[in-house]
Amino acid sequence: MSDATPSRYDRQARFAPLGDDGQRRLLAGRALVCGCGALGSVIAETLVRAGVGFVRIVDRDFVELNNLQRQVLYDEQDVADNLPKAIAAANKLRRINSDVEIEPVVADVTYQNITGLATNIDVIVDGTDNFAIRFLLNDFAVKYGKPWIYGGCIGAEGQSMTIVPGKTACLACLMPEAPPPGTTPTCDTAGIIAPIVNVIASIEAAEALKILSGHEESISRRLTIVDLWDNQFRQVDLARLHENSDCRVCKHGEFAWLAGERGDASAVLCGRNAVQLSAPPGTSLSLNDLAARLKGVGHIQLNAFLLRLYVGDYVITAFPDARTIIGGTNDVATARRVHARYIGA
């Protein structure tokens, strides 16, 4: 290690593929971590410990007791203090590495603010819990040539994919449309164990370090899928998908999510302490399937026209057109969090 590399990174710089030059690039690197829950807290901590010079953390949520099982940056005091996750994370991370500039942003990531959040960034890392934001990130990344890393996990299974626009398949190549609300499990309905979070987040962080250190040639060109309970690890080569896909985003330049033409619409219902969230036109939801998935989560009322779930302080009403009304709050960010937790995104 040369004198130019701080001693705290000695063991990291001794890793030959990284070296002093790679470490210097990390010190000058800029990362955006979207979402700082389970995945995001591991990703953010890893990047900060590695010496990435600037880390912007964006999260709309606050710390709750049930987060502590898997969200490694938080503790019981953060719960007692009702701290937003971005603020609590920044507080911890600054104590870990005071040389890194950490910028917490308490906000939803939307088509209206993504440009300001991601323009001056070298890599975007996914720590979110919903596909609307992921498709928005994908649109932005492809349009402006920003590398980004997708990751997600549920139960004991997770997956990750690195996207370098123009060189790899993008998320829309793999998944042309976001799954309709209510069709995918969530942590609150299917559960999750912490080890899979650590594995997927570490894969994402490693890919980010490759990009930030100038070693793009070493990134994975595969979709990586891990199931820790059944002891399975598999990879799907995406090279042919990139070559042959007729992707609306990276081949045709259609950026509907970035333009605000897709995504969740919301409206605060006057005098009702409730928020309505609307799905894209043409979306449908099977109320019977949703009821089966939510069994045991809370009290359910179901008829041919709607499903109503009573859980905690909220009353969630879902309709066949995938529209939902979240009763018990008039805050849009809270309503989206509740929707993502129980209905899915």
Tell me briefly what this model is:
The chain is an alpha/beta fold and 345 residues long. Helix content is 33%, strand content 22%.
Structure in words:
With 345 residues, the protein is α/β, with parallel strands linked by helices. It folds into 2 domains: 7-244, Rossmann fold; 265-342, 2-Layer Sandwich (TATA-Binding Protein), CATH 3.30.310. Helices cover 33% and strands 22% of the residues. It contains 13 helices and 14 strands. It has helices at 10-13, 19-28, 38-50, 76-80, 85-96, 114-118, 131-144, 171-174, 187-190, 194-212, 239-244, 287-294, 332-342; strands at residues 30-34, 54-59, 101-106, 123-126, 148-154, 157-163, 222-227, 232-237, 265-269, 274-278, 299-302, 307-311, 314-318, 324-327. The strands form 2 sheets. It has an 8-stranded mixed sheet, sandwiched between helices. Strand 7 (222-227) and strand 8 (232-237) form a beta hairpin. Helix 3 crosses helix 10. The longest helix is centred in the middle third of the chain and has 19 residues, at 194-212. It is globular and about 65 Å long. The N and C termini lie far apart (46 Å).
Topology:
Blueprint: H1 10-13, H2 19-28, E1 30-34, H3 38-50, E2 54-59, H4 76-80, H5 85-96, E3 101-106, H6 114-118, E4 123-126, H7 131-144, E5 148-154, E6 157-163, H8 171-174, H9 187-190, H10 194-212, E7 222-227, E8 232-237, H11 239-244, E9 265-269, E10 274-278, H12 287-294, E11 299-302, E12 307-311, E13 314-318, E14 324-327, H13 332-342
Parallel strand pairs: 1-2, 1-4, 2-3, 4-5
Antiparallel strand pairs: 5-6, 6-7, 7-8, 9-10, 10-14, 11-12, 12-13, 13-14
